[in-house]
Write a structure and sequence with these properties.
The chain has three domains: 147 residues, no CATH class; 79 residues; 59 residues, Serine Threonine Protein Phosphatase 5, Tetratricopeptide repeat (Alpha Horseshoe). A six-stranded mixed sheet has the order 1-2-3-4-5-6. The chain has eleven helices and six strands. With 306 residues, it is an alpha+beta fold.
Length: 306
């Protein structure tokens, strides 16, 4: 497992990425929230932005606790605090400067709304989704790092498909992790399952994540948090990008990504390792940082869910 302080280098671009997300999605958020007959695409983005907003609040609430536990160096805590504060200031500025062109309080003409969406909003939403996809992994990485104090208090139970099981032999992999906090009834379970068909049938692997949580508050019950489904290319460990990550050669990694000979979401067909995991194993911090800035998801494990 990667050392937490090694992962810290990967969130160096946290403020820049998150700032871009907030700037480019604020218009879409306001538009979607105000228009009752908004297209389905906007409603889905509205849900994503709601989760992003909750994540920001979570980070702000945990930052003080992380400082007290000395999980991160004080200088890094200070930078992270300033980054979150600057994002909030930018949101306030955007609210004050943004003028809504349509009067959303009056009944809107659905046809006019859809024409506006087709002509003016669709390209903006497309860019927004791309930026969200790149930044969500970085944001989640920061959240997990800030979540270390809770992990140290709680009991972690992890069940992984054994390498000798018949499921693994037929291409299935996965794990069920549960974090239980003693005394308050809070727990969180994450189910991660995947399947790697033979390369001659299909060259991609399929994985999905689902998270269940219980806050321990009476009447709240069980919550199902947003999950995701991934398709990853199955490649050899000797592929150009994998070899570049093993060597920590940032120049060669950049070249592989630019010419299309590899992608940050690739997965080794033999063991399930990603370019990011290989760079972490070699402790190549510059390569790790570059891969994260290029959109690598830090939450994708190998076949053993490391």
């Amino acid at each position: 497992m990667a050392d937490p302080l090694t992962i810290v280098g990967g969130i160096a671009s946290f403020a820049q990425l998150l700032s871009l997300v907030v700037k480019t999605t604020e218009v879409v958020f306001t538009f979607c929230h105000s228009v009752r007959d908004a297209p389905k695409e906007l409603k889905r983005i509205h849900e994503k932005l709601t989760c992003l907003n909750l994540a920001l609040k979570n980070i702000e609430a945990q930052l003080t606790e992380v400082y007290e536990f000395e999980i991160l160096p004080p200088d890094l805590c200070y930078v992270l605090h300033n980054s979150i504060d600057s994002v909030r200031k930018e949101v306030i500025t955007l609210y004050s400067k943004f003028d809504i062109a349509l009067d959303f309080e009056s009944p809107s003409n659905p046809l006019r709304v859809r024409l506006k969406w087709a002509l003016l909003e669709r390209h903006l939403v497309s860019d927004t989704v791309d930026r969200l996809r790149d930044s969500e992994g970085t944001l989640t990485c920061a959240l997990q790092l800030l979540n270390v104090p809770r992990l140290s208090r709680g009991q972690l139970q992890n069940t992984v498909l054994d390498v000798d099981s018949w499921l693994r032999k037929f291409g299935f992999f996965g794990s069920i992790s549960q974090i239980i906090e003693p005394g308050n009834g809070q727990w969180e379970s994450r189910i991660c399952m995947g399947f790697k068909p033979p390369n001659w049938i299909y060259t991609k692997s399929i994985t999905f994540d689902l998270i269940f949580a219980n806050t321990g508050i009476p009447g709240k019950g069980l919550s199902i948090l947003p999950g995701q489904i991934r398709l990853q290319n199955q490649v050899s460990l000797n592929s150009p990008l994998m070899m570049a990550c093993a060597q920590g050669d940032v120049r060669l990694i950049r070249q592989c990504l630019n010419d299309g000979s590899g992608q940050v979401g690739d997965r080794a067909s033999c063991c399930g390792k990603t370019p990011l995991l290989i760079a972490l194993e070699g402790k190549h911090l510059n390569a790790v940082t570059y891969l994260l800035e290029s959109g690598a998801d830090p939450n994708i494990g190998d076949d053993n869910q490391m």
